[in-house]
Write a structure and sequence with these properties.
single chain, Arc Repressor Mutant, subunit A, Dna Ligase, domain 1, 2 domains, three-stranded mixed β-sheet, 5 strands, globular, binds zinc ion
């Protein structure tokens, strides 16, 4: 990551700090609201900072939520290949870091003569806490209500 050598600007640091403080995924617009105190007044300012933070490797973009989260483990995160568990009940997001996953995805792509630039897997469902609340003592049926609900939403 060659651009990581260039220091972050003040705006970028504000965006990063706001995201860290939220400790949850935020959209650019939600960030803008939190950053007005620092003189931010246009979404483009936020987007510009976010793009740089993603490029540098401290923030991930969650496509399915159109939101951003800070990387939870920059030392082990292989930014090209990342996975997130997104709870549809409480909105909690956990970054899943696993070397075997990364290696197997890279291997799979290679076996198809494909050179991937990046991949973000976004798993939707229930976190452990919400799954327990939803179906106490019955783990096997947890996946069903979520699928039904998604179908209705569409
Ligand atoms: Zn990460
Ligand atoms: Zn949850």
């Amino acid at each position: 990551m060659p651009s990581a050598t260039k220091p972050l600007t003040e705006n970028q640091l504000h965006v990063l700090a706001a995201l860290r403080a939220a400790n949850a995924p935020l959209t650019a617009y939600a960030l803008l609201e939190r950053l007005r105190v620092w003189g931010f007044n246009a979404p483009t300012q936020v987007y510009r900072s976010l793009n740089r933070l993603v490029e540098v490797g401290v923030v991930h973009r969650l496509e399915s939520l159109n939101a951003y989260v800070t990387c939870t483990d920059a030392d082990h995160c292989t930014f090209g290949f990342t996975a997130f568990a997104i709870c549809d009940s409480c909105g909690g997001v956990e970054e899943l870091i696993d070397e075997r996953f990364t290696a197997s995805l890279a291997h799979l792509a290679k076996s198809h003569a494909f050179t991937p630039a990046n991949a973000t897997v976004e798993l939707h469902g229930n976190c452990g806490q919400c799954a327990d609340d939803r179906a106490p003592g019955c783990k096997s049926e947890q996946a069903l209500p979520i699928n039904d609900r998604n179908r209705i939403d569409e």
